[in-house]
Amino acid sequence: MTHLLPVRPTSVGRTDLTSQGAPRSVPLGETTTFPERLAEAVKPVRYTVEPQSPSSFVCKPKHFLVRLLSLELNYLHVVLRDGSVALTGPAVIVNRVRKKLLGGSTAKSQ
User: Fold this and answer.
1) Looking at the predicted structure, is the pLDDT value of residue 41 above 90?
2) Angle at the Cα of 60 (from 19 to 81), degrees rounded to 5?
3) N or C: which end of the chain has fewer CB within 10 A?
């Protein structure tokens, strides 16, 4: 008979749902139209944009129950830096918004 050791959960093969410690960068494009582009990018994932300062935005879920809980983990933090945008938040949301922002910036530049 073999001795069974307790198995601890591992993160191998699992997608981490949050990327709070690793912001993703996106080329900025035009700064004057960025708030409108951001609002369009978060619309499909049902988030709203709340400006914190001219260079910082917080995107929050529109869903009532998620907003009621108002967990910081659900927020998408957007910071404008030198020529780029830093996105920090849930990985699924960050990736979708990043793709929308990249798609809008490449379409406008062509």
Assistant:
1) yes
2) 60
3) N
77-105, pLDDT tens digit by residue?
999 988 888 999 888 889 999 999 888 65
- 88 Cβ partners below 8 Å, 6+ apart? 19, 20, 22, 23, 24, 76, 77, 79, 94
Dihedral of alpha carbons 38, 40, 42, 47, sign: positive
* In the chain, % of residues over pLDDT 90: 30
- Overall residue count recorded for the chain in this entry: 110
CA–CA separation, 77 and 44 (whole Å) = 17
CB neighbours of residue 89 within 10 Å: 23
Rounded Cα gap, residues 76 and 78, in angstroms: 6
Residue 32, token pair as written in the block: 């004057």
Burial class (CB within 10 angstroms; exposed 0-12, middle 13-18, buried 19+) of 41:
buried
